């Protein structure tokens, strides 16, 4: 019984003696609450949910933002800004600039969420380029800053950036800002509607229906000059 009390208190750090005592009673174990309090493992500090638990529990209310750089053929550096919906891994908004500023970034947030569509939480790092507190506060968005040098705390947008690089930009020579926007727009069309995601149980950010063999033969359409392909069924 003592081991069970310890196991329950360790596995459920948010449970107090009252909660554990009630659980034991439902398991047919007659023990006093004082006994539970005596043998339970006391946390050293106030328990709180883990970062992964926070991301999982609030996925539908969270967006993540980040920048990544893209060099052009003339060695000019372009900055790509992304706004990602964590729940469906959908890129809500993107834009490209050569001179990212806090004012420009704040404007991108406003454009991403018009007409009171703002999320509850926004995850970002501590870069000074994200110093748009007044603009975001006016939209009633709570900013959640990741720890310094901890990109793993913003995993969804980091993974998307990795996918964009591996599946698109590492295979394309970018000439200028306009060319980069065009390449990203074409890739994101494929990413949203055709590319399956492990985190979405092999579905796409925009729900993709299953096409049964009865719909006809498989049709192939190249994307990004044949770098990827779309597969759909078409009636004969």
Walkthrough of the structure:
The protein is an alpha/beta fold. The chain has two domains: 2-48, no CATH class; 52-200, Nucleotidyltransferase, domain 5, CATH 3.30.420.10. 34% of the residues lie in helices and 20% in strands. The chain has helices spanning 2-11, 17-26, 33-39, 51-57, 102-112, 133-138, 155-167, 177-193, and strands at 62-71, 77-85, 90-97, 121-124, 142-145, 218-223, 228-233. The protein has a five-stranded mixed sheet with strand order 3-2-1-4-5, sandwiched between helices. The chain has a two-stranded antiparallel sheet with strand order 6-7. The longest helix is centred in the last third of the chain and has 17 residues, at 177-193. It is extended, with a radius of gyration of 24 Å. The model has no long low-confidence stretch (mean pLDDT 87).
Short account of what is shown:
The chain is of the alpha/beta class and 236 residues long. The chain has helices spanning 2-11, 17-26, 33-39, 51-57, 102-112, 133-138, 155-167, 177-193; strands at residues 62-71, 77-85, 90-97, 121-124, 142-145, 218-223, 228-233.
